[in-house]
Amino acid sequence: MDCRKIADDVYTLASLEGDHLAPFVKEALDVIDQCLDTHGPDNVSLSFNGGKDCTVLLHLYAGAIARRLKDGQEMKPIHAIYIPVPSPFKVLEDFIAEATKLYNLDLFSCKPEDPVIESVPTPAPMKSQTDYVDVPKPVGKSKGGEGMREALQTYKDTFPHITAILIGTRRTDPHGAKLSHRNMTDPGWPSFERVNPIINWSYTDVWAFLRRLNVPYCSLYDEGYTSLGSTFNTFPNPALLVPPSPSTEMPLTASSIITPSTTLSHVMSDTHQTSTAPSSNKDNTNNDPLTPTGILSSIMSATHTLAKGVLPSSITGPARQSVIVETQRPPSLKIARYRPAYELQDGNLERSGRGTTQPQVNYQ
């Protein structure tokens, strides 16, 4: 990443009169600059876990540091700490690795022995997709505080010169309501100043910034996730569900359980509408995968191996698709598709995909 260009982009945005984002960007940059003035760039670190908020903060921080560079001076690696949750998404960790290279992060991954597990109230869907109520729903066990303290102590022991950590907490986050831009850690915790430059940003502000400046972000957000944590407690947001059309609804009924005869009836309608050139080998009829005999032969082979979870590569075309659909689809499952996170209209529903179990969705 060209951090000098990032600096031009973010400070220009902060100076735009009449732009909704401008005052929020300016406020965040002012807080970062004050932090750098107080502690010095070598003593400040960034908490980075790949989420949308800390991605915004990383981009702002890279711009703030680059703006202080003299002509010909190169950017030093950016100090950062990553505290993983139990069972993180691989896609998220891949993004963290990519961002580490893009922004030249000196990223210290600190996995505590006592896992950092959230325990916070999350909204639960009620009645329909659009009706929600706030129901206290614990996520995991209440060990997050001790795990975080342990990780920060390890970081302090390893990098004693780090005195401030930039954090992407916002006012609407759990435990964020009473925070200010700058807070010291509580008594009994490793001594750091916690700096929250985007504390006053909203959910929509975050996405407006990321998309306005084309900032790279984790691809899970394009799949309907709006708040990321562990795979144990993170699901696509039901508020972003795209109701399936009748053509995509394929409930598995007793009459559609896979057998050679029922699967053959599924694929026969496809083969009747598929034009194929007649085979020049008259003796090859039974081996043609698009003849009833050929399809039945493939399916018979498949039913003897599907119990082992193996689908023969020899099954192709309509026969393969039918076998895959009928064996992999649980009863009454409808194909679910979600809009991207930036299309969520109500930021209050940001954490509606978080909980101990996947939210139940009413398709009606």
From TrEMBL:
Pathway info: Cofactor biosynthesis; FAD biosynthesis; FAD from FMN: step 1/1
E.C. numbers: 2.7.7.2
Region ranges (Disordered): 120-146, 267-295, 344-364
Molecular function terms, GO-annotated: ATP binding; FMN adenylyltransferase activity
Entry's Gene Ontology BP terms: FAD biosynthetic process
Bias kind Polar residues: ranges: 354-364
Domain of life: Eukaryota
Alphabetical keyword list: ATP-binding, FAD, Flavoprotein, FMN, Nucleotide-binding, Nucleotidyltransferase, Transferase
Catalytically driven reaction(s): FMN + ATP + H(+) = FAD + diphosphate
Residue stretches making up the Phosphoadenosine phosphosulphate reductase domain: 44-234
Gene3D superfamilies found in the cross-reference section: HUPs (3.40.50.620)
UniProt signal peptide: none
PANTHER family (alphabetical): FAD SYNTHASE (PTHR23293:SF9), FAD SYNTHETASE-RELATED FMN ADENYLYLTRANSFERASE (PTHR23293)
Name of the molecule in the record: FAD synthase
Organism: Agrocybe pediades
